[in-house]
Amino acid sequence: MQFIRPDINIDFVGKRKLAMIFSWVLILIGMGTLFLRGPNYGIDFAGGTLVQVKFEQATSAGDIKDALKGVDLGPVIVQQFGDQTNNEFLIKTQSSSAELEGLSQKIKTALENVYGSGKVDLRRAEMVGPQVGKDLRQKGLMALLWAMIGTLIYITWRFEFRFGVGAVIATIHDVLITLGAFAVFNREIDLTVIAAFLAIMGYSLNDTIIVCDRIRENMGKHSKDGLAAIINRSVNETLSRTLLTSGTTLLVILSLFIFGGGVIHGFAFAMLVGVLIGTYSSIFVASPVILFWEGRKGQRSETAATGRSS
Amino acid sequence: MSKSLNVRGGVIFLCLVVALAALAPTFFRGDLPTWWNKAFDPIHLGLDLQGGMHLVLGVEVDKAVDSRLDSMVDQVDTLLRDKDIVFKRVAREGDDRIAVTVYDQEASSQVDGLMKDSFPTLEPLTVNDSSGYIEKYYRLSDKEIASIKDYAVRQALETMRNRVDQFGVSEPVLQRQSDDRILIQLPGVKDPQRAIALLGKTARLEFKMVDEDVNPQDAVKGNLPPGTELLYEKHVDRRTGTTSETPIVVFSKTELTGDLLSDAQVRIDNRYNEPYVAIEFNSLGAKRFDQITAANVGKRMAIVLDDAVYSAPVIRERISGGSAQISGSFTSQEATDLAIVLRAGSLPAPVKILENRTVGPSLGRDSIEQGTVSAIVGAALVVLCMILYYGWAGVVADLALIFNLLFILALLSLVKATLTMPGIAGIVLTLGMAVDANVLIFERIREELRLGKPARAALDVGFSKAFITIVDSNVTTVVAALILLQFGTGPVKGFAVTLSIGIAASMFTAIFVSRVIFDYFLDRRQVKRLSI
Predict the structure, then answer these.
(1) How far, in Å, CA of B197 to CA of A77, rounded?
(2) Pair (A61, A35) in one structural domain
C-alpha cells in the first residue's frame, strides 16, 4: 500500500509564505493568550496542595466545595479528574505552609462526614512548597535551554550551521505553539508537560534531521539545481516516511490520551499537539528557514560585492 | 553470508533467552524456583505506581549554627566563672558572633587568651571600649559555619535513617539532595500522617526545673523574669477528646538533654493502664541526673520535648539508678513513636517539609492498568498499520517491535531502573517512534526497487543508506532524554530512562533484528521478490 505516489512533487517551498502566515497566526494566538492569562502552572511549579479523591457515589464539584466549608483551606479549587463516570475530583489550594501538614486528613474527615465513612478514597496528596516550585521552574527552563544548545551543537557538527539554525527555529516554533495550545485550552503545566516538551523537541528534530539528511544527499547528487529545488525534492522524497512515522506516533499518543488516565493526560495532550506541529514544521518551516538563511547570506555578500555603487 | 547469518541469529536468540529469563520474575514470580527469583529482580515500580510517600525535607541549618553559638555562650560562661574572671555578660550577637563584656584591660587579655585556647574556631573581632567596660566580639569563621551546617544535614540524615529503620518500611530511600535538603521515599507506607509526625519531629528532649516563684498566669500576661521561659503542658481528655493547655514557667537553663539517653522503651502503667516511656541514661547522664535530683528534692522538674512540656513531676527523692519515665496522656501509638524518636536521637536542627507527594495504592494499581491498556492498544494499532502499509515487510517490522518491547522491559529489570507512570508513557511513545527506523529502511528499499534493482541489492543499499540517517535522528532524542535525566526528579526521570532505553533497544531491533529476518528469507528460503 502507498499513500504517497513515488513521483509526487508538491511545491512545498513555494507555499512557504502561506506557511509562515499560518505559523505566525498560531504563535501569536497562543502567546497572546499566554500573555493575557499568565501561565497556568500546576502545583509542581506554582507550589500548593493537591488532593485527589474518589467517591463511591456520583457528586459534583459544588457539593464537594460545600462539604469542605468547615475546613479552613483558603481559596479552594475543585475539579473533575479523568472520566466523568469515575467520580474522581482534584481539590487544590494555593497554600503549602507547615500548618497544612494534616490537611489531607482534615479534608478526608470533612468529606466522610457528608458522604459517609468508607465512601471516600484518598488517592493522592501532593504538597509542594513555594521554594521547591521555584526551583523546579528554573530547572525546567534550564533543561529546555540546554536541550536547544545541545542539539544546535550536534546538528552544526553533523551537518552545517545553517541546518542547525533551521532545526532549532523549527523546534522553538513547535514548543511555542504547544505552549500556546496549553494557554488556549487552559491546561495546567506540570513536570510531565516539561518532559513532553523535551520529547517534542527530540521528535521535531528527528523529523527535521531526516529531511536535512536528504537535502545534504541531494546537494551532492543534483548540485546543478538551485537550493530551493533541492529542498523541495528532498521534502517530497521523504514525505511518505514523514507521514507514516507521525501517523504511527500519533496513534500511540492517541491511545495514551484516551486510555492512559488523568495522571498522564497533560503529557499526552502536549505530545499530541507537539507531534502534529512537529510534522508540519519539518515540512514547512525548517527547510524554508535554511533557504531564507541562505538567501540573506547571498544578499549580504552581493551587497558587499556591489559595495557603494548601489 | 550464510555463516554470519547463523552467528547473528545466535546473538538474537541469546538476547531473547536473557530477556525472557530476566522478565519471568516480574510476571510469574510465584511459579518460579527461588534461584531464578534471586538471579533477576522484578521490574522495580516507582512510588506513583506502587503507592508510597515522597518527601523533601529542608534542614533549617541556620538554627544549627544558632544552637552551636548558644552552647558556646554557655561554655564560655562556665569557663569564665571557673577561672574567676570577672565579667559583665556573655551573649550571642546576631547569628555568627558572641559578645563578652568585661570591666578592665586585665580581664580583657585574660579572656583573649582563654578564648584562643578553648575556642580556636572563633575569630576575635574589634573591641568596643566605652563608658567603663570593654565589649569584645568573637565570630565563627565562614568555614566553621559551613562545616556546622554540613554536619547538621549529615546528622539529620543519619537520624532520619534510624527512625525510618525502626518505622519498618521496606526499601526506603534516604538521600541528601542538595546543600540542606533531604529526600526520603517510603514505598507502600500505610499511614502517611504517622510517618510525617515521626520524621518531622526534632525530638529535642530537655529537663528543666520549674520556677515555682512565678505565677504562670502573670507570665502569660507577659511578666516573665529574666532567665525563665514560658512553656505549655498539653492534656488530652481521653473520653471527650478535648485538649487543654496549662502554662508552666521554667528556668531557661537546661539541666540535662536527651543526648545522654541510652535507651527508651514503652511500658504500661499497671494502675491506670496507660502507656508511658521508660528512659535509661548512659553513665554520664545517670551521674548528672543523680546530682540534679539530689539537689532539687521537693521541687518540680519539667520534661520538655520540642518546647512542649510532657509532664512536670515533683522530685520525691534522689534518683541514682539512671532511669526515669516520661508519662503524659499518650495513646500507645504515640508512646511507641516517642520511644522511637528518643532512641534514634534528636535532630541537630528543626526540619521543614518542602515537598510531600503521597500516592495511595489504589491509584497506583489503576495507573498500571491504564498504562498497560494504552500500550496494548497503541502497539496493536501500529502493528496493523505496518502490515497494511508494507505487507510481509510490515510483519518483519512488527516482529522487531515485539522484540523491542521485550528488550525494553528486560533492560529495565537488568539495570534495576524504576518504572513510573511517565516511564510507561515513554515506552508507549517509543513503540510509536520505533517503527520509524524500519520505515526509513523500507522507504529506501522501495526507492531502490523502483530504480530496478534486484531484491538482494535493494535490501543491502536500503539498510546501509538508512543507517546513518537513523543514527543522526535518534541522537537528538537521546540528547533530550539525557538532559531530562539530569534535571528530572522522580517520575519524570522514569520517562527519560525508558525513552533512552527504548531508543537503544529500537535501534538494535530495527537495524539488526529485522535485517537478520530479511536475510533469512532471502538467503535460506530463496525468496526472490520482496513484499514491501
Answers:
(1) 27
(2) no
